[in-house]
Specification:
This protein has about 800 residues and is an alpha+beta fold. The two termini are about 50 Å apart.
Length: about 800
Amino acid sequence: MVYSRKIVILVLFLTTAHTVFAQQKSYVLWYNTPAKEWNEALPIGNGRLGAMVFGRPDEELIQLNEQTLWTGGPVDPNPNPKAVAYLATVRNLLFQDSISKASRTLQNMQGPDTEMYQPLGDLKISQQYTGTPTDYYRDLNITNATSTTRFTVDGVTFTREVFASAPDQVIVIRLKSNKAKTLNFKVGASHPLKFSTSVTAHNQLVLKGKARITNDARRTPKPLIYEDAEHNDGMRFQFRVQAVSQDGEILAQDSTISVSGATEAVLYLSAATSFNGFDKYPDRQGLDEEKKAISFLNPALKKTYAQLLDSHIKDYQSFFNRLTVSLTDRAAPNLPINQRLANYKKESTDVPLEELYFQFGRYLLISSSRPGGMPANLQGIWNKEIRPSWRSNYTTNINVEMNYWPAEQTNLSELTQPLIEHINRWAINGRATAKNFYNMRGWAVHHNSDIWALTNPVQGDPKYASWALGSPWLSQHLYEHYRFTSDKKFLSATAYPLMKGAAEFCLDWLVEKDGKLVTAPSTSPENVYVMPDGTKGNVTIASTMDMEIIWDLFTNIIEASEILGTDKQFAALLKEKRSMLSPLKVGAKGNLQEWYGDWEDADPLHRHVSHLFGLHPGRQISPLIDQKFANAARKTLEVRGDEGTGWSKAWKINFWARLLDGNHAHKVYQELLKSSTLNNLFDTHPPFQIDGNFGGTSGIAEMLLQSHLGEVQLLPALPAAWKNGHVTGMVARGAFDIDMFWSDGKLARAFVTSKAGNTIKLRTIQKIQVKGVELTTSTVNLNNSTQYLTSFPTKKGAKYELFIQQ
């Protein structure tokens, strides 16, 4: 079939009113074949419920998830009482350079592993027709968060539409025919673990199940099934489906729902688990999942499809439409996404695809992280495996943080609430970990966690399992939320106490060596070094990443103390300790040194570039601060190369943007699309990890707008490929909404809306004026180029027009 796409007028200047309107484009992923596998299916979600839509004409498969469906239960606060006895020994061995023995000893300080995120089950729709489907089409419209499948058989066109409603907490599926009473299908349900299905007296199809519970999931090779789980305190779950049709006959029996002779029918799907909090056992202390599922389904059944769709679109677009972007004035190629990706690998000229990927990341965050729910995990909310890769957990040495990098920048601040609430849970469990494993104050989080907020070091190689600085990195998100919103109440009541607890742990974790404060034991997550004598090490002291993360936390708390006018003695202590931190070092190759010594990497192209934390997401390294360390960071990236896993490439986009090299950032973005993007635009490690999608979106935001150094930089790393364009609704620290329009690679006009009434300082390469405002302007020289620093006070709610001084 021929696919047509409306091209809308993107920018309309009303010069008399000095107002700019930028209309949201229509973004559609479309295909002319059904999904052959999960990685080609299309994701929908409402934050809590997720579904992968395959779009198969005769045997439609919709794979389902509910974000709280995990194995296990509340964590043991002291799973390894002997751990604390080994810390002094490990430190002494490290100071004596007995690296291998220190690593082996450190494994005595580990605890149980994380639990696993589980699939909810499968919904299957078997549609009856004679003939062969033609004119096949399926799509995911991320402008309104709906998925459509359409095909024709013997002149009759059948259409399916699917969406996941956040307001009504149901998944809705409408099937229709363009010829009266020709729609016939059966609905069934299944689960990988063969849980039973049944039909209720109200003609509802129900699948019920129960997850296993164990403090170490590896010790239970086969999860318990519902019928045999009377002694299992695991998570109960169910989903239920009801069909509604005005003219079709509906029959529910034998674990299926049959609809025959219909013109249109709507399936309402509700689901729930017994999850009742991270500290409650999900069976004996759990919620009534059946009551909960029915409480969602029954009200939805009283609404028409049109009513449900309307409220769904309004809710979704209240987030999505906050930001518009145009990176090119060219129309998107009239080709399926899989074909566009294939072409991109050859030519890399499809800028509309680059733009689509950016907005797709925002779509995924809206669909997998909503206030009141859980944070997006390693796969967002989409998983079909009983044993998902890396347990689909929260990996705190980069991945869960990367999930939320684009939230504040791209005007989705509320979607960070699930992460913030989980940080509170980590702090509760992390206090027990800090005390029981290390006899220290504050709270500690190690590299892997789950819905139960596990914080102990898990079993495994210390190079990943024994990384202990999750709490200061997670605390960065708390302060960044304040920096973007200027919400002092949040800073005082929520962020500061948590940040201080993380700092207390860091103060106890640091030890003095040769007049400097170092961490011991220390790792540079998942990487291995080689000492001059050939010894390989996975544990050290004072890795660069450790020092940068602690510097970042101390700096944030010092600033927060000044803002709040409180806790001055503690701030003074942190200033003293910050000055004693083991410093950044430049290696013999001109690179930023990753380890305590200037040692080689066992894998020079390793996917983690953890020692550039100070460049991004930190703010310790920048070409605007110190060229020495900025150049060392650049050299590090050159040595590491542009390849790597999907999320690694995504992080590198952010790095290059922070180095103000838009063309190189764009080059890595192209590599992300070429070799680390699946046909449904999911990022692949491989396999699928959603952090690469979110990191890619963040990287584009960093290319267009930066504000981490206290200055709002307009178009700091604009690549040559995006010569003309605009973005509206981006957010800068200081609580400023920014609209920008550029032409021939230069800023043409901008608008600043002040949400908190702060003074703004702008950094541009062109001298600007602000209509009706007296400015303070100065110049600086960077790489033989003049840059302008322009500042002015703002009023809360006011909008300011910026234009280029001729």
